Amino acid sequence: MSTPTVLTVCTGNVCRSPLLERLLQRGVDRSHGAGRIEVRSAGTRALVGSGMDERSARLLVDLGGDHEGFRARRLTEEIVSGASLVLAATPEHRSAVVQLHPRALRRTFTVQEFAHLVQAIPDDDLPSWDDPGAALERLTERARQARAGATRAVGDGLVDPFRQSDAVYDELRQQVSEVLPPLSRALGC
User: Fold this and answer.
1) Does the residue 188 lie in any domain?
2) Does residue 127 sit within a domain?
């Protein structure tokens, strides 16, 4: 049986998606033990083989993560098909994931959308993480059901800081700081 996987997706796979990957992996490892849930990332137009963008790596370290050993990879149908949950940086990335692998529609959300949807789940209705695969499946299903009843989209997506000013990195920090608590709560971290 394969390890349940959360996939984060952005464009170059050097700023937003690895930042989320490393922060979420740290949380699930601490809460559930290393190797029980994998968090990975990929980019729709990845800078394949590159390490994290220097300023995103600094932001990650500031938030308690580690960028060592990270290498960007391109999003493929195989990567998407192996993911239990896909968190896209923007609605455009979400569309790219679903276009690549249409059956992923039910388990693909923007990061902001998923954070908003799971934040509304009562504590006593969050899954038990004894079986991480079943828990991730249940959590994704709850978010999908909530999305079906949603009346509006949530957020325009995480800003792309690549080759932008420090102010854009500050905005990304703020956005990540807003989505991380509900994501961590939902993932049992």
Assistant:
1) no
2) yes
State how far the Cα of 9 lies from the Cα of 30, in Å rounded to an integer: 23
- Structural domain that includes position 112: 5-181
Give the single-character DSSP code of 128.
Answer: P
Side chain identity at residue 48, one-letter code: V
> Considering the domain boundaries, does residue 34 fall inside one?
yes
Neighbours of 172 (CB within 10 A): 22
In-domain check, residue 187: no
pTM over 0.85: yes
Which of 57, 83, 59 is closest to 70 using CA atoms? 57
Count of domains forming the chain: 1
Distance, CA of 138 to CA of 150 (rounded, Å):
18
Question: The domain that contains 169 carries what CATH number?
Answer: 3.40.50.2300
pLDDT in tens, 57-111: 999 999 999 999 999 999 999 999 999 999 999 999 999 999 999 999 999 999 9
Closest C-alpha among 78, 68, 89, 126 to residue 13: 89
Phi-psi region of 153 (alpha: psi -120 to 50; beta: other; left: phi over 0): beta
